Amino acid sequence: MRWYLKVIPPLFLLLAWEVASILINNPFILPTPTSVALVLLSPMADILGSGSIIDNALLSIWRVILGFGLAVLCAVPAGIIIGRYRIIDELVNPLIQLFRPIPPLAWVPLALAWFKIGLASIVFIIFIGSFFPVLINTIDGVRRVNRTWIETALIYGAKGWKLLVYVIIPAAAPAIWTGLRVGFGVAWMCVVAAEMLPGTNSGIGYLIMYSYNWGQVQVIIAGMIVIGIIGIGADLLFRTIEKKKFQWQEMNR
Amino acid sequence: MTVVIQDVGKIFETRTREPVTALGGITLEIQKGEFVAILGPSGCGKTTLLRMIAGLDTPTTGSILVEGKPVTGPDPRLAMIFQEYSLYPWRTVRANVAFSLQMRGVAKEERDTITDRFIRLVGLDGFADSYPYELSGGMRQRVAVARALATDPAVLLMDEPFGALDAQTRNRMQKELLEIWENTRKTVVFVTHSVDEAVYLADRIIVLSPRPGRLSAIFDVRFSRPRDRTSVEFASLRRDVLELIDQLEESQ
Ligand SMILES: Nc1ncnc2c1ncn2[C@@H]1O[C@H](COP(=O)(O)OP(=O)(O)OP(=O)(O)O)[C@@H](O)[C@H]1O
Ligand SMILES: [Mg+2]
């Protein structure tokens, strides 16, 4: 697409925002773009004694890495086993179907009961949120591995772990990677939501909630923009690596 | 005898339908270094027969011996080349050809030497670091041939390896395959739908009947290679085989 077509909608939104904020003329409802920009331009500045935007964002990212990393460590091996062995699939599939539709935030009360307020609860919520997308995509990827690839490997002497490492996993890698990308997106949403819960005292979600209590709407919007940018950035990173590493997939026939 | 097929039959049990008898009893002996083509109508069990020789399926009746020993599963004495989609797209040409050597634990240097030799043999020097998606269909099948030869199998099983190629590429591949076969003297079992291909390539043509596949006729192809497709003997043998296949299909 022509690049200038892409910039028209954001510019239009910005203009509409500017006009609306002037008409409303109340920074507690809709601050001007300029005041938000000012917050964004000094991301290292302390905000009402809760640390800077950068500090809080980094903390949120760290929490996501913990929860998401744990989810990946559990979901990828589990998915490979479930995808490989029909019996195990039939055994655990009802459980997966049962737990999958429960929104991660519905786990919050249980998380609080088990881990109290703090890092462990937040990591747990993120874990739950990213576990299922990674698991489902891994199972699917492993199950769909081209039969000819597996039979070729058998003919050429691959068995057991070698078959897994040299054929099944590379063949399923694009699907697993998609699972990671989706899972990371969910993890990022979960951390922000979890940080808004009462009792937390750090993270970008907390910063937004805290600013609300102090009527700092320009910080809320600035925080939302940062959340969006980090989300897009992560997605872009995943997609870039996907393009480079799994180029074979698009052109495979 | 390199391959001895003793009264081999295959019945597939299916969950939804009646059991399918894919192959009636087939008895066949293939000599060392022989090039055998298998012809027959679609669904008569050619692929099934090849898969059983390769150890990917087990016969319901009968037995298969390769170099005197029964085949009980995938086996280093046998290599199989599929019609398509068998290369690993995430591996380069070199890594694809080296696959079996790597699986069998051959050291890197030795692997590279062997691999390079077979890449050269199939005329792909300069493409060792390319990926399969960067190659044409014909080149991909050459990689598959190189990969199969690199394992130094006693028998090369080929299931319509050139079926997906255009006529021109196909003819060239047939010629190259014969050259490779003459250099390596592997035993080849070659499944095809093309009578022309079978007459051009094989020492012997096995014709199977419609399902359940049984041995219907064996044609010896006596004239010397390289064979001239426009010669009288070529045309007359091709006509004989075609007539038989037509009869088989009508009587069905
Ligand atoms: N795994 C299977 N389960 C059930 N039936 C099967 C299975 N594999 C093959 N068949 C049946 O066995 C018969 C022979 O199949 P096969 O693939 O060997 O035929 P073919 O001669 O190779 O055909 P084509 O020329 O079309 O490749 C067919 O009727 C097929 O439906
Ligand atoms: Mg077939």
Automatic annotation (TrEMBL), chain A:
Keywords: Cell membrane, Membrane, Transmembrane, Transmembrane helix, Transport. The chain crosses the membrane at residues 12-30, 36-54, 61-85, 105-136, 163-194, 214-238. GO terms for biological process: transmembrane transport. It is found in: Cell membrane. CDD domains: TM_PBP2. GO terms for cellular component: plasma membrane. The keyword rRNA processing does not apply. It is a multi-pass membrane protein. Residues 57-238 form the ABC transmembrane type-1 domain. PANTHER family: ABC TRANSPORTER PERMEASE PROTEIN MJ0413-RELATED (PTHR30151:SF0), ALKANE SULFONATE ABC TRANSPORTER-RELATED, MEMBRANE SUBUNIT (PTHR30151). This is ABC transporter permease. It comes from Methanocalculus chunghsingensis.
Automatic annotation (TrEMBL), chain B:
The keyword ATP-binding applies. Belongs to the ABC transporter superfamily. Sulfate/tungstate importer (TC 3.A.1.6) family. InterPro entries: AAA+_ATPase (IPR003593), ABC_transporter-like_ATP-bd (IPR003439), ABC_transporter-like_CS (IPR017871), ABC_transporter_ATP-bind (IPR050166), P-loop_NTPase (IPR027417). It is found in: Cell membrane. The complex is composed of two ATP-binding proteins (WtpC), two transmembrane proteins (WtpB) and a solute-binding protein (WtpA). Keywords: ATP-binding, Molybdenum, Nucleotide-binding, Transport. It comes from the Archaea. PROSITE patterns: ABC_TRANSPORTER_1, ABC_TRANSPORTER_2. This is Molybdate/tungstate import ATP-binding protein WtpC. Residues 3-235 form the ABC transporter domain. Part of the ABC transporter complex WtpABC involved in molybdate/tungstate import. Responsible for energy coupling to the transport system. It comes from Methanocalculus chunghsingensis. Its EC number is 7.3.2.6.
